Amino acid sequence: MHIVVCIKQVPDSAQIRVHPVTNTIMRQGVPTIINPYDLFALEEAMRLRDKFGGEVTVLTMGPPSAEDSLRKALTFGADRAVLLTDRFFAGADTLATSYALAAAVRKIGSSIAPVDIVFTGKQTIDGDTAQVGPGVCKRLGFLQLTYVSKVVNLDLQGRSIEVERRSEGGVQVLRSTLPVLITMLEGTNEVRRGSMVNALSAARAEIVKWSAQDAGVEDIGKCGLRGSPTVVKRVFAPTPRAEKAALVDPAGRPPADALIEEIFKLRPKLEDDMFQLARGF
Amino acid sequence: MAQPTKTPTPAPAGRAAAKKELSEHFKQYKHVWVFIEQERGHVHPVSWELMGSGRKLADKLGVDLAAVLIGAPGEALNAAVAESFCYGADLAYVCADPVLQDYRNEPYSKALTDMVNTYKPEVLLLGASTLGRDLAGAVATTLLTGLTADCTELEVDTDGSLAATRPTFGGSLLCTIYTLNFRPQMATVRPRVMPMPDRVEKPIARVIEHKLGMVEADIVTKILAFVPDRDKATSNLAFADVVVSGGLGLGSLENFQLVKQLASVLGAEYGCSRPLVQKGWVAADRQIGQTGKTIRPKLYIAAGISGAIQHRVGVDGADLIVAINTDKNAPIFDFAHLAIVTDAIRLLPALTEAFRKRLSAHTRDRIAS
């Protein structure tokens, strides 16, 4: 069995700051991490490998520095890492990204071993779109299983897979046929720690680096900024409300009482609503 | 390792791509569509919220607003079609087939893709629910068009393009995205981001039926079972009238209990900002913000939350935002209505007690009157 896990190296968003004067992103010194959602995908892929045998290949598209995330994935226990890196890929939106990644998955399938399952996280923490997984899936012509919380059963002989999928108001139990693309829900497994042995071999491991050409991309015009149907026209900081928050001045009152007074002064009807609510109506 | 590629550097695409040069083919694409999401006999409220946004876009463009419904034939589907007209549809496109009973990607994406190719809308809006995201990503890729996820604002530009605004860079900035030269222009919007429009009783008008052209044997993925969620309480956060939430300023998981205690006295729901979920203090379904829930309560009390955009977009629809924070320069003071500069850890217990008294005093008043 051969599983490809698509990961993304993202800035640790908790540490991004906006310049107070110019309103631009201060990216310098922001550490990068593997998109946290992708770790659940990687873990699930490795569990299936450990149970059924086979190999896990991690794939990312990004600048040369994205190699760090691939090495990290090798430390966790992935068998092989492919970095898709080329200036043609720069500025890609979700459609152009899925084009390049799908080409790379096909190439991995033809040059290494046929791919049975592609895993991705349910979304990234920087783009938050949850679109690249379905996009790669459609382009590959795989069956699409998103928001999967559990792989219930895998029958390699019969080429069938059963999963639990989060849907509105409940869980769908689905049976589908390999090859599939699974986007993995967060919190669904306990991500393993990297072992010392893996860390040592990961540091020495050769990362496969592919340009667009190496990955067998047929049409460069479908990659990167040029291949992106969406155009970002404006990036801006949100306008503050015309008036800043009114500050509550306790003026001798206990602060809690003062705050409640001010709340009900601003919204007189709220007190009745809250009375009903507090009584459980 | 691979050799560096010898292909020449591409022309700077930014300028060229940013110019509107719509092909003759795409100029035929007209009207605004809203996908009406139904699951297990119910329409997801986000669909009606989108009808409100779609109505405004259609009016500005001077085109029709169409509701698009996909599902198994029957009472529930008929009711949803009828309801679409009460929420502003000029017409409805309906694809009814027994294989569409429950959501599956294959038949639903075929239905929607075929309908788009046949009837050619210029704008297609879907809810950013699990269903909507699963469907939108697949359909946009098949149609090779642009899709902007999780928009917080939808506008029509002077040239008639859809201007879709969403938070970016982990929620610290906003960006406005266009799909200038491809159609339809697709966007998803998360539940509760747009206000619910008024429902106006109206008769069913034009309904156009579309044949699926697929039978069960064509569909690979089978539904073996559906297990409904047992804990319905957590999903109430998005619809709660009063919400109390806490952020990193609380300092510890122990102090987060103060938020829960206040919420409990008020009969309110409690929530938190993203870092608390990342720390594992609070369950993910309690997160409020761009990557969590969007709320529209009458009263929102934020304790120890600094108020990054990521959080703000989740609470902007609240009628009254009250911030409790020690830092008077915190961004939350830019969008809260009422604020108190103090340590939430000290204020929360007092506030819980004061509310308890106040609301029971209210009880006495009511009994007396």
TrEMBL record, chain A:
The species this protein was found in: Rhodopseudomonas rhenobacensis
GO molecular function: electron transfer activity
Protein name: Protein FixA
Entry-linked PROSITE patterns: ETF_BETA (PS01065)
Functional note: May play a role in a redox process involved in nitrogen fixation.
Family: Belongs to the ETF beta-subunit/FixA family.
Subunit text: FixA and FixB form a heterodimer.
UniProt keyword list: Electron transport, Transport
Residue ranges occupied by any Electron transfer flavoprotein alpha/beta-subunit N-terminal domain in the UniProt entry: 22-219
Entries under SUPFAM superfamilies matching the protein: Adenine nucleotide alpha hydrolases-like
Automatic annotation (TrEMBL), chain B:
Keywords assigned by UniProt, alphabetized: Electron transport, FAD, Flavoprotein, Transport
InterPro entries: DHS-like_NAD/FAD-binding_dom, ETF_a/b_N, ETF_a/FixB, ETF_alpha_N, ETF_asu_C, ETF_asu_C_CS, Rossmann-like_a/b/a_fold
Any single biological process term in GO: fatty acid beta-oxidation using acyl-CoA dehydrogenase
Entry keyword Secreted: no
Cofactor note: Binds 1 FAD per dimer.
Record-linked PROSITE patterns: ETF_ALPHA (PS00696)
GO molecular function: electron transfer activity; flavin adenine dinucleotide binding
Binding site for FAD: 273-274, 287-291, 304-311, 325
Key word Electron transport present: yes
Domain Electron transfer flavoprotein alpha/beta-subunit N-terminal, first and last residues per copy: 32-223
Known cofactor(s): FAD
Family assignment from sequence similarity: Belongs to the ETF alpha-subunit/FixB family.
Protein name per the record: Electron transfer flavoprotein alpha subunit
